[in-house]
Amino acid sequence: MPGVGGAAAYRDLRRLAHGAVLRPGDDGYDAARRVWNGAIDRRPMVILRCAGAADVAAGVRYAVRAGIELSIRSTGHNVTGRAVSDGGLTLDLSGMDGLRIDPERRAAVAGPGVLWGDFDRRAQEHGLATTGGRISTTGVAGLTLGGGFGWLMRRCGLAADNLLSVELVTADGTVTRVDGDTDADLFWALRGGGGNFGVATALEFRLHPVGPVVTGGAVFYPAASAGRVLRWYRGFLRDAPDVLSAQCNLLRLPAAPFVPAELHGRPAVAVAVCHLGGEAEAGKDLAALDDLGPPLLRRIARMRYTSLQRLYDMAGRFGSRVHGRAGYLAALPDAAIDVLASAEAAPSPDCIVMLSPLGGAVARVGETETAAGHRSAALSVSVDAVWRDPAETAAHHAWVRRLWDGLRPFTDGVYVNELGDEGPDRVRAAYHPASWSRLRDLKARYDPGNVFRLNQNIPPAGPVTTASGEKTPAPAPGRLG
Ligand SMILES: Cc1cc2nc3c(=O)[nH]c(=O)nc-3n(C[C@H](O)[C@H](O)[C@H](O)COP(=O)(O)OP(=O)(O)OC[C@H]3O[C@@H](n4cnc5c(N)ncnc54)[C@H](O)[C@@H]3O)c2cc1C
User: How far apart are CA 158 and CA 458, in angstroms?
Assistant: First the structure.
């Protein structure tokens, strides 16, 4: 079907929707097309700032009818920037930030524009929380639909494991509520399949008693001791209870108030922890940190869970350029430790190599029970270059490439929310092979025309049905994305 011009789309959408419709040059257009990764600069033909599910449905139906590319932007944190279409229609859901906490039922319903910082603050008023992102400015939607890692996951499972239901706008523009009873297949796909199956306009989560005070923070050691710290970390993880989550990160000490000025920018290896138990229990479980000898800096304390959830906020500044690679590790062999320990220091202060543990409640869910896979992995490793000056792009890409070339042979699969623009084989690698075929079959059932393709795309199995009802051969996986 032929596309439409910006003027027609603007006029039509103004008639069909309640939310603001923005064209290039309009006030708010640039803010609505910005994403977290400052390297992305896409210009939609038109942006609909959705006021609710009805606007989303109108936008989806309009894009299909007009044959224009559709993108879904919730909070814009995905590094690929596929939340924003270049030349098509972007549905901006960031204003759909309603949040309802039901302490009696231990449940919360959040709009796709809700940030984890707000979610945590409101849920913690009742001593409750669910697994959510480790930076308070990350949003609930994209993170949860892709799986959802966070400090609580060893105790409470992935964010997607805590989904109770989703209000969804499907590819034909219908608004529907999906849970395990209404549509078990679709609900399965939504828990890990990313934005491939519709637009989530509300997400209902199970909440758990957490805190409000936990033990958290980090201990920093000189980068030269990375090999020793990583070997210790491997053993520490093996014995860790579910209430303890510990990351091991290679970084530069930030120029933050809690860091003495003489240590700012110093390459270091950090063990960052969250312990959900009482003070005595945490003291016992964290005592092994003392085996590592004197650190450069130790900042572990009893703190509010909401404060712990902001510890990394400095590294999450909107507009930074970012480029990274990630993968799952079944174990942490000596050879992988050697690669990490001999890594050259990051070219700028916000770059980070992060080892995040799975295990606990994540591993107790079966590999194909949800679309989110790789549950038996011990760790996820990510190498992220973060910088501001475009002139430094090549140096940062080269740093990631050199480190990743060494690490990649030890990895198996990847967390879909940590994927960059890496091609269709890497999207497939995010899933168990049986889940991948089921996802492709379900995509053919729920989105045969691949309307939702600006994402880590799962191509529909079999021929693709276009909006006009025409059947075309199935594309090579990922070619539509
Ligand atoms: C600073 C930072 C910290 C992060 N921390 C974590 C972390 O702790 N744990 C973790 O697991 N991940 C983390 N991430 C990764 C994050 O989960 C992904 O980037 C996620 O895709 C962002 O979600 P979003 O809602 O901002 O997506 P957007 O960037 O707005 O959209 C990205 C894609 O998600 C899909 N999507 C978004 N909203 C919807 C919706 N409502 N319905 C259907 N599809 C939708 C679309 O396909 C869209 O193209 C972090 C990212 C950043 C930048």
Answer: 21
